[in-house]
Amino acid sequence: MERTRTESEKQYEYMEQMKQWVEKQSQKLGRPLTCHCTTFGCQMNEKDSEKLLGILETMGYQEIDSEEADFLLFNTCTVRENANTKLYGHLGQVKKMKERNPHMMIGLCGCMMQEPHVIEKIKESYPFVDIIFGTHNIFKLAELLKNRVDSGSMIVDIWKDTDQIVEDLPSDRKFSFKCGVNIMYGCNNFCSYCIVPYVRGRERSRKPEDILKEIRQVVSEGVKEVMLLGQNVNSYGKTLENPMTFAQLLKEVEKIDGLERIRFMTPHPKDLSDELIEVMAESDKICSHMHLPMQSGSTRLLKKMNRHYTKEQYLELAQKIKDRIPGVSFTTDIIVGFPGETEEDFEDTLDVVKKVGFDSAFTYVYSKRTGTPAAAMEDQVPPEVVKERFPRLLALLKETAAENCRKKLGAVERVLIEEVNTHEEGMVTGRLENNLLVHFKGNRDQIGTMANVRITEEKGFYYMGEQVNG
Ligand code: SAH
Ligand code: SF4
Ligand code: F3S
């Protein structure tokens, strides 16, 4: 506790020192210094970027919508190869920008930076980068920038792992009415295809009192919906001094006045407890939506993936949830082309999709990640086989999604109004509990409020509706 407080105080001092530097630079330029953060990857990274922007704004930077900024930060992802390729694409363009604006500073952080071969490549091919840090020390941004300004050379600071959680740093939320809240960091599951445990370190939970304090704070600022974030939220609390379950945490979050909606991501099927299902069933605020990554429907492959459940167990779990929470919507993550995937394995995946009837799914082509056990597995699936399977999965998902979408016709749903519709004047867009969007008549003043909306038309993956009173 003592150590944590000292760290955030220390960082505020760096922010103060950098503020003076930023002020001096703006006077020289005759305009404010600008910053921009480009984020790749999952909600964890989105949340980290909000914290990084919070630090930059405290230092006096003004956020802009373009990469032509005085400080440009890339928060990277490495879960699949194409995430890496994207970063290198951007860096090629940044090189030209920096030639035009030599005072521009470039920062790289996030999951990709935790891989030593990436750092080597950047030092060699992109020497114009100013600071590089990883996933464990984002709280040090001001300190690293200060070191960069003082030394005039590239700063690289990557930690292999950490047990430290630094609280009480600034954050610049992207939306005024909803936000992510970290409840835990890291992952201990080591699914055989996945790089996340190597780049995000060991699992550690935030203390419930810190989580609740943060949620109370954002709710007092107008937030209506929170998304509790962790790689495996079902194992929340195990590392705490006073252990607590995820379901118990949810019950505490539910008590916060003014909070309307609770979502969470991601629950691992192997650890999903009856207690959690019960708490969801009883709750007024937890959205009736379960994102439950299956990865594959084949018991044989699930074993090779180190997922610790079988096809039957997944199906039973889904059924149990449906029975206790009628109308619950299901979404999932699916990988096509995991090493050794046969036609029969793939058909098992299709079978689960059909039986559960997912509302939607994130579907991925298996991507080989260096250092993971699956990368060394023989019988990698040829791309042409994946190319043949992938559209079959998408076609089936389109059917299950459309079928679920139709079920809501005529129903009155509670929605959170998120934005004015850019295509049609006088319309707003709201989000249903199942995460789908509905467009209906409304105005800008309604953004961030809840409304009851009758679903009048379904469009396969979104709806049209009309607001009703009450
Ligand atoms: N912790 C979450 C997922 C984090 S990564 C969970 O366990 O569900 C998000 C998704 O990326 C995973 O669910 C998986 O479907 C996909 N993914 C991870 N590694 C991958 C790889 N090497 N190739 C393709 N997809 C992958
Ligand atoms: Fe990756 Fe598995 Fe951890 Fe999810 S649970 S982050 S898929 S290792
Ligand atoms: Fe997320 Fe990508 Fe990292 S999915 S945890 S940002 S590797």
TrEMBL record:
GO MF annotation list: 4 iron, 4 sulfur cluster binding; metal ion binding; tRNA-2-methylthio-N(6)-dimethylallyladenosine(37) synthase activity
Q: Which InterPro entries match?
A: Elp3/MiaA/NifB-like_rSAM, Methylthiotransferase, Methylthiotransferase_CS, Methylthiotransferase_N, Methylthiotransferase_N_sf, MiaB_methiolase, rSAM, rSAM_horseshoe
Q: Which UniProt keywords apply?
A: 4Fe-4S, Cytoplasm, Iron, Iron-sulfur, Metal-binding, S-adenosyl-L-methionine, Transferase, tRNA processing
User: Per the database record, which ranges form the MTTase N-terminal domain?
Assistant: 33-150
- Record's catalysed reaction(s): N(6)-dimethylallyladenosine(37) in tRNA + (sulfur carrier)-SH + AH2 + 2 S-adenosyl-L-methionine = 2-methylsulfanyl-N(6)-dimethylallyladenosine(37) in tRNA + (sulfur carrier)-H + 5'-deoxyadenosine + L-methionine + A + S-adenosyl-L-homocysteine + 2 H(+)
- GO annotation, cellular component aspect: cytosol
Please indicate which superkingdom the organism of origin belongs to. Answer: Bacteria
Give me the comment on cofactor binding.
Answer: Binds 2 [4Fe-4S] clusters. One cluster is coordinated with 3 cysteines and an exchangeable S-adenosyl-L-methionine.
PANTHER family listed in its UniProt record: CDK5 REGULATORY SUBUNIT-ASSOCIATED PROTEIN 1 (PTHR43020), MITOCHONDRIAL TRNA METHYLTHIOTRANSFERASE CDK5RAP1 (PTHR43020:SF2)
Quaternary structure and interacting proteins, as annotated:
Monomer.
* NCBIfam families the UniProt entry points to: miaB-methiolase, MiaB/RimO family radical SAM methylthiotransferase
| Protein name (database record) | tRNA-2-methylthio-N(6)-dimethylallyladenosine synthase
Tell me the gene name: miaB
